[in-house]
TrEMBL record:
It comes from Sphingomonas japonica. Residues 10-56 form the Putative Flp pilus-assembly TadG-like N-terminal domain. This is Membrane protein.
Length: 544
């Protein structure tokens, strides 16, 4: 034993035996871990490719991801899980929380779990190293849509009065000018590009342009610069000269969403009706919330007509035109109140003969209409479509006496009293009629095909309450009460019947007047026009 303890021959054997596990462990750490990292990077590439493919066809996300993995050349077993959801590009949200598997679908997350083979670690019984990688891809499909109303009829005098009040100057456009504006669309992105020049802005992106303060004349010059129709262009140029100064910020009206940080965009992606845009810009930039117009005897059948228009704000600061990803936001029109004081002259009433005139006060109130994007389908070009939900705002109309001092106070409900329609020495006749469309309207589904989007087709939704026309409906249900000596009610008799018969024919003329007044500010009683002004099916991109 002493010789064995003191002997130096063969000492390397025990040392090697003791150090061999450490050598193998080091080799496993270096070679097997490096190989696992390499396989992990390969698996990440496959996960990214699967996510991109699945995001291009979310309806078949799982099958598409599995097909990509099967064709990837991965030799080992792998588990594929594709999850559809919504990805939000918001710096305020932690990266790990930006994918929401319960939200509306605009992204797909693919998780792959597999194993990387080992070489040296097999000695210790570990034949594989588990590896898992996740790839997330989203596709930004854009749609621009608007809600409002186009003018169904044109009255040059009324429109000139409205635009004149909004510009603070005299406006004398012809019916031909207005028809040209109504029939012309403006490319919003081209308009913003032209505004950079007309307003001499140093802005780079579209959002920079929207945030800048520009004058009304600069806005109208930019509109004229991008309008193709010569008549509409000349009309806008003339309005630009009359509009004067007064700065306007466009950001509250237009939300370009994910393309706002670009300096140029796809032509025709967002189209806006020239007349609707003109009216909206002037309403927003003038600061005028109530317009008082004396139309005299220009309305057929009426001896005198006075129109008061009060324009409210859009609720919650919602933009008028929005480019958005799936589901947001809700667009709302402005509120409005119209009060028409009409007088009929030379009307013969049984028992009273021909009287000097009949006063007819007509009040119309329109709440904001709403529209929201619910789906963008880009599966194939032939089947691409955009789905919108929309509903009309509640409306109220009356033939009654109101407090005109509260016409532009939209926070206060309007109260209605009997109006004095006929005032003579012997007999007075009071009248009152109210039509209420209610407070809640159901959402109505509208699907615009790709062809309809390209054609800028307008779809009209109507209130669930049947209505034959504001004035016509009111006149058919008006309650007339004759009063003798100012205090003694009398039963309905020949005088009242004659007055009712004289009022009915005036309904269509008053309805036409109301339609022009409301249409000029983008509204219509009991109806709303919706159109998708453009759509773009984007390519999937990797995120997170």
């Amino acid at each position: 034993m002493r010789r064995l303890r003191l002997g130096r021959r063969g000492g390397i054997g025990p040392i090697f035996a003791c150090g061999l596990p450490m050598l193998i462990g080091s080799a496993a750490l270096a070679v097997d871990l490096g190989a696992a990292q390499l396989e992990s990077r390969r698996l990440q590439g496959i996960a990214d490719a699967a996510a991109l493919a699945a995001a291009g066809n979310p309806a078949r996300a799982q099958a598409t991801a599995e097909a990509v993995v099967a064709e990837s050349g991965w030799t080992g077993s792998v588990t594929t899980e594709a999850t559809r959801g919504r990805y939000r590009r918001d710096a305020a949200i932690p990266v790990a929380d930006r994918f929401d598997a319960t939200g509306a679908v605009n992204a797909v997350r693919v998780r792959l779990e597999g194993g990387a083979p080992t070489y040296f670690a097999r000695i210790f019984g570990a034949r594989h190293v588990a590896v898992a990688r996740t790839g997330t891809a989203m596709r930004s499909d854009y749609a621009a849509f608007s809600i409002g109303s186009r003018l169904a009829a044109v009255d040059g005098g009324l429109l000139n009065g409205l635009l004149g009040a909004l510009t603070g100057s005299s406006v004398s456009l012809s019916v031909m000018d207005y028809n040209a504006l109504i029939g012309t669309d403006i490319d919003l992105l081209a308009f913003l590009g032209a505004l950079r020049t007309t307003a001499s802005l140093g802005a780079v992106s579209y959002d920079d342009v929207l945030a800048a303060q520009v004058t009304r004349s600069q806005l109208l010059d930019a509109m004229a610069a991008v309008v193709g129709d010569a008549t509409a262009r000349n009309a806008l140029a003339g309005l630009a000269d009359a509009a004067g100064g007064g700065t306007v910020a466009l950001a509250p009206l237009f939300d370009l969403g994910p393309i706002g940080d670009l300096d140029r965009g796809e032509a025709g992606l967002v189209r806006v009706n020239a007349m609707a845009m003109l009216s909206t810009l002037l309403q927003h930039g003038s600061g005028v919330r109530q317009v008082d117009l004396d139309l005299g005897a220009t309305v057929p059948g009426l001896a005198r007509t006075r129109v008061r228009v009060a324009i409210g704000e859009r609720p919650q600061g919602s933009p008028w035109i929005s480019i958005t990803e799936l589901g947001t936001p809700i667009l709302r029109t402005a509120q409005a109140r119209i009060y028409v004081e009409a007088k009929l002259g030379g009307i013969a009433l049984g028992g009273l003969g021909t009287i000097a005139g009949i006063e007819l006060p007509l009040f119309v109130e329109l709440a904001s209409a709403e529209a929201r994007l619910t789906d963008i389908s880009c599966a194939t070009r032939a089947t691409r479509s955009v789905s919108i939900e929309a509903r009309t705002g509640p409306g109220k109309a009356a033939i009654a006496r109101i407090d005109t001092g509260k016409l532009d106070d939209f926070s206060t409900p309007m109260t209605f009293a009997k109006a004095r329609l006929v005032d003579t020495l012997l007999v007075d006749i009071d009248g009152k009629s109210v039509v209420d469309l209610g407070s809640v309207e159901p959402w109505q589904q509208l699907r615009f095909s790709g062809t309809e989007v390209d054609a800028a087709s307008v779809r009209t939704i109507s209130s669930s309450h049947a209505l034959e026309g504001v004035a016509v409906s009111l006149l058919r249900t008006i309650e007339l009460t004759p009063v003798v000596g100012g205090f003694l009610p009398l039963p309905v008799g020949p005088i009242v019947n004659a007055l009712g018969a004289a009022l009915i024919p005036l309904g269509p003329a008053l309805d036409s007047l109301v339609n022009v007044a409301t249409g000029a500010i983008g509204l219509r009683y009991g109806q709303a026009d919706v159109r998708v002004t453009g759509m773009r099916c984007g390519r999937p991109v990797l995120v997170a």
